[in-house]
Amino acid sequence: MASSRGRGSIAAFATYRPPCPWDIFSCPNPPSGEKDEVNLLQSGSSDHYNHNGRPIPAAALKALIAKKPELASECGATADDVDSGRATGLVFVSERENGLETLHVSLCFNDKVKVLSLGEIYGADTFGGVRMEDSGCFGGGFAPNADPCIIYVSTKKPAEKRRTPWTVVYRTNLKTGETEQLTPDGQYDLSPAVSPSGKRVAVANFRGNRWDGEIEHLKTDIVLMNVDRKAQGGKLERKRYITNAGWPSWASDNIIFFHRKDDKKGDPKTQHWGVYRYDIAAAKEPVLVTPTNVESMTPAAISETKVAVATIESKMFQMGDGVRKPEMYRHIEIYDISAPNQPVKITRVVRPLGDHYSPFVLDGGRRIGYHRARAERLLEQTGQSNVARKFNKLQSPHNDVDLFRVSGVFPSVCTDGSKLAFVDNEFKAVWIADKQGLRCVWERRGTNSVFSTMWNQNPELDILYVCVGPAFSKDKPLDIYAIFNASGDQREYRKLTAGQNNAFPYSNPEGNKIVYRSTRDHADKKKNLYILEDAHAGEEGGVTRLTNGDWTDTHCQWAPKGDWVVFASTRDKPAGAPADDNGLDPGYFGIFLVSVAKPDVVVRVMTSTPPIPGPTSMAGHINHPVFSPDGRSIVVTSDLAAVSAEPISMPMFLHSVRPYGDIFSFDIDPTDITKNRDIQKFHRVTHSRYEYSTPVWTKFATNDPNAQWNMLVPADSRAANYKPACPYMQADRGQSLHMTGHLVIPRRCC
Question: What is the CA radius of gyration of the chain?
C-alpha cells in the first residue's frame, strides 16, 4: 500500500457471522433441561464472539501459569488447584482483540474466569499481526525432553501461490515459547488434533496441495505426524492415512473419528455428511457410525466406541420458507457404535430451537461442550426479537487505512462521508445511517429483492441507486432505481431502466452519468457494461455501450478522476473450462480497467490464478473492485487465499451464495492505464473463517467527525441508542435463519 497517511477506511460485510455473539457452553451427559447449561466463560453481557473451545490438560495449564502468573493470580488459583481439578482451563477462538479471530486461553476457579490471548502470554513476535488462528490443542509431555506444547492453525504466513490456503499448523513450546512450523512448505492443513499420548497430531490436509473452489465439501485427507520433531528422532514422519476426510478426533492412540461427505453415486441428492471411525492398526476401510438419514459432522471422541457430533436431522430446502422445526437445527448428540440408533440427545433437551456447533469433551465425557449464539440476550436486553445494527472496527494491515465490518449487505458511503446505506440480509429493505440516525428508507415485499446500494458521487446530490428484482438470477428482469432526496422526508423513487437484467450502477464524479452492467444486447443473457448518459432521466436520456463481448462484465466502478472504469469480467475464461463454477456462476473472474474515452483500451489488472495455458488459467474469483479515494489502489473480494476453516463447521447447512473469501488490495499506477497489466503483488486485508464481500472504501477514517455513520461503531456510546433492525427469533422463540448469518435468498445461479 502506498505510504502516505490518512487514506480513509475500508468496510465490508461478513456472511455466516451470526448477528448475536457466539459463546461457549457445556451441559451434563445426559442433560435434564435448560437449567443444566453452563456458560464456561461467564460472558454475561459481553459482546465478544467466542467459539471452537477445547479443554486444556493440567500439565499444559500449569505451564501457561508458570509463563504468565497473571492467568491464575487474579482468580486465586494455584498449581495444586489445577492438579486437583478445582481450577480448569479452556483454549478457544475469540474476536475480542482488534476484531481478529485468534486463540485465547481461560482459567476458571471459584466462579472466576481470567482470559488472556496467546499474544499476551508469548508476545507479538509469534502471536501478532493480522492473522487468523484456530483449532488449539495440546501435546508433548510424553518424555523429559518433550515439553507441553500447543498445536494450532495460523494464517500469518502468506502462501506462495494464488488461490491457495494460508492455513499452516504450528507448534509452540508452552515453557519457552519456541515455535516450529509443522506443515511442510507448499502444503496446507486444517483442524489439527493431538493423540491422547501427546505424541501424534492428525490434520486435514488439502489433497494435491491445492484448493479447487470447493464450497462446502473440501477435498482433504487425514495425515498423521509427530508432535515434537526434536524429542522424536528428528523426524515428523508425516503420512497420509485416510482419504476424503476432515475434522479428526482421537479416541485413543489407535482410533480416530472424522467426518466425510459421501457421494458414492455421484448424485448431489445422495450426498451425505457422516461421522466415521478408523482403526489405524487394522488399516481397514473406515466404518460409518452415524445414521445415513442424519447429517453428522465435527466429531469429538469420548472413547473408542462413543463420539459426540453435531447433527442436522432435516434440511430446509428454501431460504426463508416457513418456520424451522427442532430437527432443522444443528444439535449435539452422542453416538455409541454398539447402539447406533439410540443417540443421547444433548442440546435438543437443553435448547431445542437453536443451532449448536463444534462439540468437545469435558470430564471424560461426563460433560459436553459446544458453542452457540447467545440469542436469548435479545429478549433480555430489548424485549424484542431483533438485533441492533453495529459496525465493528478491525485491525488493519495498513497503517494508513482503517478497516471495519458492517452489519448490512452492499454498504455504500457517500463521497463526503456523511451517509452510509446498505440492505438487510433478506434483501428486502434499504437502510441509511447519517446524522439523523439509522432508519429504513425503502422496503420491498413479494418476490423481488433490493440490493447493490450506491450513492451518487456528487456530494451535492442526495441520490441513492438500488437494484430491484430477483436477486442473482440472470434470466429475469432486474432494474435500477434512483431514490432522490434519499436521506430526506420527501423521497422520489424513479425507475431508470426497463426490462433486461441491469445492475451495479455507479455514477461518474460529476454525478451526471452512470455506468452499469446489462444483458440488453444479448439474447443469451451475456452481460456487458453500458453508460446512462443522463443519470436523472435513465435510459430515456440515452445509452452508450462501453464493452462488447460474449462474456460477463460486471461489478463496475468509475475511477475518482472519471477517466477509467474498473470491473470484474470472465472475458479471458479459457476454452475447455467448465460452464459453471460449482454450479453457481461462470467463475474465472478477473479485474480489468477500461478507458472511458477509448473503450477499445482494456487492461487486465489482476486474476485469482495466473494466466497460464490450459483450462485452469484464471480459475477463481476476484470481484467487486473498488477504487481507493485517491485512485492509487483497488480493493476487491476474492478467493486468493482459498478458505481458512472447514466450511461445514460454520452455519452453512443449505448453500453458499459465493465463497469469495477475504478482502484484498493492490496498488496501481493512476497515470498510465497500460502500466497496470497483470499486477503480481497484493495485500491480504482480512483473515477470516467468514465470507467477506462487497467492500467499500471511503476517504474518511472511522474516527472522523464528518462520518456521521461512525455513531454505529460500538466504541461510540451513541450506538446503544439504536435499536433493532430485523427479526431474528420466531414466534416460538426459535432462532430464525437470520441468526445463522445467512443471506436469506434463493440459491445463487447467475
Answer: 26
CA-to-CA separations, 667 to 309, 374, 635, 670, in angstroms, rounded: 46, 41, 9, 9
Give the helix/strand (H/E) hosting 543: strand 543-545
* pLDDT category of residue 52 using cuts at 50, 70 and 90: very high
Amino acid at 722: Y
Q: How confident is the model at residue 301 (pLDDT cuts 50, 70, 90)?
A: very high
Q: What is the DSSP string of 256-307?
A: EEEEEEE-TT--GGG-EEEEEEEETTTT---EE-S-TTSEEEEEEESSSSEE
Instruction: Pull the grid cell for residue 92.
Output: 478457544
pLDDT of residue 499: 81
pLDDT digits (tens, 9 = 90+) for 114-159: 999 999 999 999 999 999 999 999 999 999 889 999 999 999 999 9
Task: Check: CB of residue 281 under 8 Å from CB of residue 289.
Answer: no
Q: Which residue has the cell 488472556?
A: 116
The phi and psi torsions of 42 (rounded to 5 degrees) equal 50, 50
Dump pLDDT digits (tens) for 374-412.
877 665 555 454 555 567 889 999 999 999 888 778 889
Q: Which amino acid is at 345?
A: K
Report d(CA 555, CA 635) in Å as an integer: 12
Amino acid making up residue 509: P
Q: Around Cβ 388, how many Cβ atoms within 10 Å?
A: 20
Q: Which residues contact 474 (CB under 8 A, 6 or more apart)?
A: 501, 519, 525, 527, 749, 750
pLDDT value of position 322: 61
Bridge partner residues of 103 (DSSP): 93
Name residue 520's amino acid.
R
| Angle value at C-alpha 26, between 21 and 30, nearest 5 degrees | 140
d(CA 246, CA 203) in angstroms, rounded, equals 8
Residues in the chain: 750
CB atoms near residue 662 (< 10 Å): 27
Write the pLDDT tens digit of every residue in 622-647. 999 999 999 999 999 999 999 999 99
Q: Which three cell numbers stand for residue 501?
A: 437484467
CA distances from 166 to 28, 186, 524, 669 (A): 37, 10, 38, 28
Instruction: Decide if 605 contacts 680 (C-beta within 8 A).
Output: no
Separation of alpha carbons 297 and 216, rounded Å: 12
User: Is cis: bond before 610, omega within 30 of 0?
Assistant: no
Determine the Cα–Cα distance for residues 705 and 722; give it in Å rounded to an integer: 19
Other C-beta atoms within 10 Å of 268: how many? 8
Where do the DSSP E strands lie in 110-182?
Answer: 112-117, 133-139, 149-154, 168-173, 179-181
Residues with Cβ < 8 Å from 136, sequence gap 6 or more? 52, 54, 91, 92, 93, 103, 105, 150, 151, 152
Lookup result for grid cell 497484493? 682
- β-bridge partners, 406: 13
Q: How far is CA 10 from CA 6, 397, 423, 637, in A?
A: 12, 11, 18, 12
Residues 6+ apart with CB under 8 A from 600: none
Dist CA 400 CA 133 (whole Å):
25
- Specify the amino acid at residue 225: M
- Give the residue carrying C-alpha cell 447467545: 374
